[in-house]
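Q: I'm building a small set of examples for a reading group on sequence design. Run inverse folding on the following structure and report the sequence directly after it, with nothing in between.
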């Protein structure tokens, strides 16, 4: 059985980061080792959340794993709370990631804005982690902040997207997938680039009437799990996008505000993607 490591926070309520990654990775038949970077009462879109920083635990945990000769088949990082945590994850890549898939979701913003607590300096630091990864899955906002490029919310053309993708891989990673890309008002998808083959791919679905919190984490978790299970990046991205669409469909009639996330559990339990 494959064992992976996912490094991100635990937001106790709000369906994102590890509360999404753990069930999805497990359901895809992969052992999910975790390294929680912080514990929050909710994710940061709720008001007055608590935040316990776990940075000081990271090195001792990793040292114990090294001592026990514990290995991982792949590493997946998501939301990280500080620049120091990014440096520590770079060490984790060195110690546990040699020759293994290193997959980075630089979760730090959306809709042209960084999440609460992040600034441009943090985005530049995150770009260093992306440089050390094999595959990255930023949304357009995160990519623009990392590259100091203007964020255009809609009405852009393929050249704008291709230029961003090429610039992302020039950071150092081999492949990049940009999420939340749409060239028509009623379509939304992901645009990928493999710098080794020079090939681009685009997969899109009908745009949903509402966007929800945590869907980037669901996309990343399904995409990563599918890659670990042997799918190609275009295949894994398309599976992940479909999974997100089904999760939104399962939620759309709910009364809860969008920051409560989507009912990905129903999609997992349906067995459609397993
Ligand atoms: O969904 C990304 C995410 C993960 N973790 C925390 C967050 C967010 C987005 O807001 O606040 C703590």
């Amino acid at each position: 059985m494959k064992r992976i490591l996912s490094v991100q926070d635990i937001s106790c309520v709000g369906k994102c980061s590890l509360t999404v990654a753990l069930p999805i990775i497990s359901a895809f038949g992969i052992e999910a080792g975790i390294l929680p970077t912080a514990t929050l009462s909710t994710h940061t879109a709720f008001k007055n959340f608590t935040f316990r920083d776990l940075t000081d635990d990271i090195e001792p945990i990793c040292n114990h794993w090294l001592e026990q000769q514990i290995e991982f088949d792949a590493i997946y990082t998501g939301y990280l709370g500080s620049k120091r945590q990014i440096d520590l994850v770079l060490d984790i890549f060195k110690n546990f990631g040699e020759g293994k898939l290193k997959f980075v979701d630089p979760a730090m913003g959306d809709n042209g804005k960084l999440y609460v607590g992040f600034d441009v300096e943090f985005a530049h630091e995150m770009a260093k982690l992306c440089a050390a990864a094999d595959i990255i899955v930023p949304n357009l906002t995160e990519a623009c902040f990392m590259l100091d490029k203007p964020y255009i919310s809609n009405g852009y053309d393929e050249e704008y997207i291709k230029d961003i993708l090429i610039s992302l891989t020039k950071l150092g990673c081999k492949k990049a997938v940009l999420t939340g890309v749409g060239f028509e008002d009623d379509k939304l998808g992901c645009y990928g680039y493999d710098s080794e083959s020079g090939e681009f791919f685009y997969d899109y679905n009908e745009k949903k009437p509402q966007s929800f919190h945590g869907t980037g984490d669901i996309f990343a978790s399904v995409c990563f799990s599918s890659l670990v299970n042997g799918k190609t990046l275009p295949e894994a991205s398309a599976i992940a996008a479909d999974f997100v669409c089904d999760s939104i469909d399962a939620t759309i009639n709910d009364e809860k505000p969008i920051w409560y996330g989507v009912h990905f559990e129903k999609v997992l339990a349906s067995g459609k993607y397993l």
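The pocket of PXL is lined by residues 9, 11, 16-17, 40, 43-45, 79, 107, 115, 214, 216-217 (CB under 6 Å).
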